[in-house]
Amino acid sequence: MAKQIILGMIPAVFIFLMFLGYNVAPFMLFALVIAGILYLMTRQGDLNLKSQKNAYQVIEKTDITFEAIGGQKRAKQELKEALDFLIRQDDTKKYGIRPLKGILLAGPPGTGKTLMAKAAANYTNSAFVAASGSQFVEMYVGVGAKRIRQLFKQVKEQAQKNGQDSGILFIDEIDVLGGKREGQNQREYDQTLNQLLTEMDGITTSDSPRILLIAATNRKDMLDDALLRPGRFDRHIQVDMPDKQAREEILKIHVRNKPLADDVDLSRIAQETFGFSGAQMESVANEAAIYAFREKKEVIEADHFSRAIDKVMMGERTDRESTREERERVGIHELGHAIVSEVLRPESVSQVALHPRGQALGYVRQTPGEDRYLYTKDYLEQQIMIALGGAVAEEIRYGNRSTGSKNDFDKALQLVRTMVDCGLSELGIVHLDMVDKQALQQESNRILNELLDKTRQLLARYESVLNRGLQILIEEEVLNGSEFRQMLKNESMLHA
Ligand code: ATP
After folding, report:
1. Ligand 1 centroid vs 134 CA: distance in angstroms?
2. Residue-range definition of the domain harbouring residue 305
3. Ligand 1 neighbours by CB, cut-off 6 Å
4. Between 81 and 386, where is the model more confident?
5. Is the same domain home to 338 and 435?
6. Catalytic residue among 138, 334, 342, 443, which?
7. Does residue 142 share a domain with residue 39?
8. pLDDT per residue over 197-209, tens digit each?
């Protein structure tokens, strides 16, 4: 109202000034420019708001159940327990338990957090509306906050429309809108977060339909404390990377609708995919099916899975043209890794390949071992030697190194850092922040030089394997594990 009165007064003031004989033209021009800018800004804000209104994902009925989520036994159990509070509202009211307002799912990308939220909606027969934290970040003050209000309204309306007692609001990447507040200059951001807190505080036991907020993040440490305090997101559920058994379960879910050959061993695939997330496992199953489809095979074979794993791990094969010289150097480099790996850990190499894939020009495929979460000093040292093997092989053959070892050195340095950080170096038990740079550098050099020497001595004994292996790689592009092992064995017998 006050805005309208002020707007109405402006022309009156101008007319009055004109009567008094003032030249008002420059003022009018100035006022017009300012009004134009303000109009454009609000219009843009509204347009954004409108375009985003339909960007939320409203799902009438999610058909995802907890059975469709592989692994995550503990997380599923914890989530179901929390959801029982929502289902058994009358009982919780009787005991005076305050309503559960927010559940935070924390864990790495692709581990099934969105799936869990959808399954939660199904389990509780709730309306489901999903949004992502980034949809609330706007440069126009107030737009993000408006969107939050709109979202809560939308989930309520959806539940009422469906005749459901509850609605679940899922916000992915909550850290984008609910990160720690630092500094002064974040008015828009603060307003959005405050609006979310206000909406959450407004949830009461007597609300109908009841609203539950489920948020997901892979940066829980970044979240503002206000979000995590009791009464807001006070249930935290950790959604971890799957272990071997979980990977097999996930795979089983994703091959259910796919024709498999008899030689496909899901347990072995699960073993070969250490470190893969649920989303990557889904991708392996899908890529394997694509390979079979391209080759017009009736069923998906073990080899298709094997190639799918390579693709998900390292990217698609590329057609990058390289010179013979380059190919030879890459071959020697990869053989260097492979020899060190096989000598230190017999049976560990399953293939050496010389075709470009993703960013790599060649690669060594390791035979799967057991999932490992704890590493000894010996293991880490072996790992460093394997990483250095490529550069050392180049040195032996050409007397120099190339830029191809950059990633290997990064990996080796990272491993050295882990050794120091875990008290496995000569510096003893230290905190990395407490060690001065020079001492760290010296210790790091000492470890690396020692291991470089050891790698040199080891590879020098197998120079002929480097030469013969390279011949095969240049001709056939791949050298399989057993062929490679036989070469090493022959060489060892010569030395014996
Ligand atoms: P982000 O943090 O990147 O949003 P997310 O944790 O929410 O990831 P989802 O979107 O739930 O991950 O998972 C992506 C896809 O990966 C799913 O659609 C599903 O196909 C597959 N997937 C992930 N985890 C599992 C699992 N535990 N069981 C079955 N499939 C899974």
Report:
1. 19
2. 244-314
3. 69-72, 109-115, 172, 216, 218, 250, 253, 278-279, 282
4. 386
5. yes
6. 334
7. no
8. 888 888 776 678 8
Are β-strands 349-353 and 363-366 bridged in parallel, bridged antiparallel, or unpaired? Answer: antiparallel
Cβ atoms 176, 133 nearer than 8 A: yes
At position 294, the amino acid (one-letter code) is R
Q: Which residues pair with 131 in a beta bridge?
A: 171
333 and 370: one domain? yes
Same domain, 403 and 276: no
Rounded-to-integer distance, Cα 367 and Cα 203, Å: 53
- pLDDT of 471 higher than 60: yes
The encoded tokens of residue 362 equal 């060649």
Looking at the structure, tell me whether residues 62 and 45 fall in a common domain.
no
Mutate to test the pocket of ligand 1, among 105, 111, 254, 280 (most ligand atoms within 8 A of CB): 111
Longest alpha-carbon distance in the chain: 113
pLDDT category, 49, cuts 50, 70, 90?
very low
Amino acid at 159: A
Q: Whose CA is nearest to atom 11 of ligand 1?
A: 112
Locate 432 and state its tokens.
Answer: 């990395």
Q: Is 489 helix (H, G, I), strand (E, B) or coil?
A: helix
DSSP code per residue over 81-118: HHHHHHHTHHHHHHTTPPPP-EEEEE--TTSSHHHHHH
Here the tokens at position 309 are 């794993």
39 and 103 share one domain = no
- Residue ID of nearest Cα to ligand 1 atom 19: 279
Q: pLDDT tens, 156-172?
A: 998 888 888 889 999 99
How many angstroms is it from 448 CA to the middle of ligand 1? 39
Measured in Å, residue 69 CA sits from the centre of ligand 1 at 8
CA angle 375, 365, 250 (to 5 degrees): 75
**Percent of the chain beyond pLDDT 70?**
90
Atom index in ligand 1 nearest the CA of residue 72 equals 27
Is there a domain that residue 378 lies in? yes
- CB-CB neighbours of 342 under 10 Å: 24
Task: Report the distance separating Cα 171 and Cα 48, nearest Å.
Answer: 19
Rounded distance between C-alpha atoms, residue 405 and residue 411, angstroms = 10
3-state secondary structure of 371: coil
Q: Is residue 127 part of a domain?
A: yes
**Residues forming beta bridges with residue 192, ordered by sequence position:** none
> Which residue among 114, 251, 276 is best mutated to probe the pocket of ligand 1, counting the most ligand atoms within 8 A of its Cβ?
114
- 72 DSSP 8-state letter: -
What's the gap in Å between 457 CA and the centre of ligand 1? Answer: 46
